[in-house]
Amino acid sequence: MKMDNSLIERVEEFKYLGTNLTYKNYNQEEIKSKMKLGNACYYSVQNILSSSFLSKTLKIKIYRTIILPVVLYGCETWSLTLREERRLRVFENRVLRRVFEPKRDEVTGEWRKLHNEELRDHYSLPNIGRVVKSRRMRWRSTSHVWGRGEMCTGF
């Protein structure tokens, strides 16, 4: 590709903002890596998320400001498969179950985990899949990707 009389080499992969990008947009390993980092972050704050002294609102803020950015760093370049999107939702549901605590079953009196539908009812903010999609759309609409006219014919 030629840009401003300079020849730009085509490469199989390169690192952009700490994220490995490939010409075929294979990013499964990158997503696995981010999930691993997110799990480490989650386990480092799980006692805080379990604390009965903190409000659920504060616990959600901790999730959204500490854990979520670690998992989603560079997600603007991801193209998610259904499998990867499911893995992200499973991760988010695990964190939310810690935040919203088990519920006592009215019939049996036993404690149980919240079902996914109950988590969605309690967590009114966009789920992790929606966040990825909105960040990708915002990134694509910025001038550094589309706004350079003929110079960016390689996209």
| Total number of strands | 6
Strand order of the largest sheet: 1-2
- Rg value: 20 Å
Distance between the termini: 10 Å
Q: List the total number of helices.
A: 6
Estimate the strand proportion: 5-15%
Number of domains: 1
Alpha-beta classification: mainly alpha
Overall form? elongated
Following the backbone from N to C, one meets helices and strands in this order, namely: EEEEHHHEEHHH
* Arithmetic mean of pLDDT: 84
- Please summarize the sheet with the most strands: 2 strands, antiparallel
Specify the helix fraction band: 40-55%
Poorly predicted runs of 5 or more residues: 149-155
Describe this protein's structure.
The structure is a single chain. The chain is mostly helical and 155 residues long. Helices cover 54% and strands 10% of the residues. It has one domain. A two-stranded antiparallel sheet has the order 1-2. 12% of the residues are buried.
Brief rundown of the structure:
The chain is mainly alpha-helical and 155 residues long. The protein has helices at 28-50, 56-72, 82-100, 116-122, 128-140, 143-146, and strands at 2-3, 6-7, 13-16, 19-22, 103-104, 111-112.
